[in-house]
Amino acid sequence: MNQLKSKSKTSMLPTTVFNSSADQAERPTNVLVVGVGGQGVILVSKVLAQLCLSKGLQVKQSEIHGMAKRGGTVFSHIRFGPQVWSPTIPAGEVDVLVALEWAEGLRWLEYLNPESGTFVSDTQHIVPPFACRNRLRGAEDTYARETPSEIINKVPNGFALDAAGMAKELGNERTSNTILLGILSTTLDFEVKDWEETLDLFVPPKTIDLNREAFHIGRQWIENAIHTAEVAPVTEFPVQQYLPEESGLVDWEFTAEWCKGCDICVKMCPERCLRLTADQKVEMTDIHDCTGCRICEWLCPDFAIDIRKPEFH
């Protein structure tokens, strides 16, 4: 599992940036949640905003939804305290930056408080189509090259983990945002039961138990990450491998039962090798045209596409 602990060597949890018993009149607490469409950025921000409101705090929330279809940038500013005047957070004043996608986290790093800010990010890569400018096999995209260790060493408190992979192990990749919500909860002075009850309001009733489990997985991960910081090995996410000219065909797996026929993958495929059938299901027109860029897999809201590249050295 790809994960990187904080550079902190203490046995304490992340610094509590909001304390309900402390005097917060001087400035509000600032939380910034970022990611791409479909990851659940708005869910995280709504849970936090509602929890703060239930405690009698003033809350200002400002959000940008990006593309209506999946893949566009999404970010949400949440400011709360006894008095909050502006809905947007100035650069350099974010207390907690939560990134559901790695490059989006890097994009907003300048907003993090350079003295005391906490950065929490999923190492998941969702490469936008415009980063794939050269469609030849063996070409590299223009996605961010910074590694977790490079970034963690530049921030006061930093945590990077494969939340998407952890959610997949749990049985539902869509709960990765709830895992990160669990980590966020350790930085704010609210009772765990209040977090749970508020989370229940925003998830489908049949997924309440699953989301609560994901929430506690996040909390447990941060405790383990801190307590084992001195002995746990650091594992970076693997460098992206690109198909060389002599490589074999891509293994393209499609689960028709999950496909809703939204045609996002068809429209975004750089090679134009996907199409919708008469019954509104996706099919590959010619596997030889596929370069394995995985854009279709990353953008599919139904998780119906799985790309496996051939092994090469």
TrEMBL record:
The lineage of its organism: unclassified sequences, metagenomes, ecological metagenomes. This is 4Fe-4S ferredoxin-type domain-containing protein. Residues 250-279, 280-310 form the 4Fe-4S ferredoxin-type domain. Keywords: Oxidoreductase. GO terms for molecular function: oxidoreductase activity, acting on the aldehyde or oxo group of donors. SUPFAM superfamilies: 4Fe-4S ferredoxins (SSF54862), Pyruvate-ferredoxin oxidoreductase, PFOR, domain III (SSF53323). It comes from marine metagenome.
